[in-house]
Amino acid sequence: MPLAIYVLGLGIFTQGTSEFMLSGLLPDIASDLRVSIPDAGLLISAFAVGMVVGAPLLAIATMRWPRRTTLVALQLVFIGAHVVGALAPGYWVLFATRIISAVSYAGFWAVAVATGVGLVAPDARSRAVAVIASGLTLATIVGVPAGTVLSQFTGWRSVFWAVAALTAVSLVCSLLTIRESAEARGETRSTAAELRAMARPQLWLSYVVTALTFGSVIVTFSYLAPLLTGVTGLSAQWVPAQLALFGAGGLLGMSIGGRTAQAHPIRTLLFGLSVLVLSSALLAVAGDNVLITTALVFALGVSGFVTNPALQSRVFALAPGAPTLVGAGNTSAFNIGNTLAPMMGGLAISAGLGFASVAWVGAAIGAAALLATAWAAYLQHRTARPSTAPCARAAV
């Protein structure tokens, strides 16, 4: 893999830490800003809303820019938003900075994936996407738990300063290593042409699967800290270790998915979603048992991220004529799930159903994702049926 692929993964790591770090900071933020935990949870949804909107808008707005320039500019905006967030005097200022951060991060995601896919051969795209996306998994293993520990000693605002500093390091690395390929420099990217290339029903069904799949895991992860302390009975000091365990499972899942997604995207999705639904349901009924909960947290990480390379790379195969917008659309789909699922979890908690109820919400969303994936498999089989070529059968 080119060094630039790993640098793109570093950029996702630094910014992805911010995307998920609130899962370990919600109690402290709620206490400091004098809001409820469900209200603090809306900060997660605010970030997701910014990503939903930001990915396609920034992909269109910067389509004719050199990709390195775009990546650096978006990181600068992200850094600035986190500095303001660290100094935020109240809830609504922090809310606004989360949206701004998310818009820039969404643009970075979309351009980073498009850049990475363009730097490797077609048969290496799933691995390249897996390497870039593994930055997000490492964020859950290292960044989020480290941020939680840092907040316990120096307050939640210090985590925002740390993310800003790490993103600055990533920005410098981007300047030093990312170069436009000769093919990228010569291509003329057209918004209209890419939109026409996206007019495929199977692509939009894939977006539905992406939204449901990510929503299924993120609804539980978003409220994992209060679930662990309020239902399982763990002390706050053990929460970072559980978050790291989730991330370790995610890294394993990403590694497995990166190897299976290119040849068997649908099977990878069906396997991951089945384990995700089962793990979520078991967590809902057995979340008061420490050993079972610990095992299920790891299983959630594996199943939640084994699907990621398939979700990311499959859309490029479905619409190869839209290398920029197809990735932006997928980023938006991820964050539609990231927006609605925590809101649904918050509603369940506010209704008095308890923190364990978020796992039931995750199981239900995951079941819907399974049905959508089964429909995608049927459509793919029906399309490929006239052909008996081995490559057509291997794509399942």
TrEMBL record:
Q: What keywords appear on the UniProt entry?
A: Cell membrane, Membrane, Transmembrane, Transmembrane helix
Q: What InterPro entries does the annotation carry?
A: MFS, MFS_dom, MFS_Efflux_Transporters, MFS_trans_sf
- What is the protein's given name? DHA1 family chloramphenicol resistance protein-like MFS transporter
Q: Which PROSITE patterns match?
A: MFS
Q: Which SUPFAM superfamilies match?
A: MFS general substrate transporter
Q: Where is the Major facilitator superfamily (MFS) profile domain?
A: 4-384
Q: Where are the transmembrane segments?
A: 42-60, 72-93, 99-121, 128-147, 159-178, 204-225, 237-256, 268-286, 292-311, 359-379
Residue ranges the record marks as coiled coil: none
Q: Name one GO cellular component term.
A: plasma membrane
* Annotated localization: Cell membrane
> Which GO-annotated molecular functions does the record name?
transmembrane transporter activity
Q: Quick check: keyword Cell membrane in the entry?
A: yes
Q: How does it sit in the membrane?
A: Multi-pass membrane protein
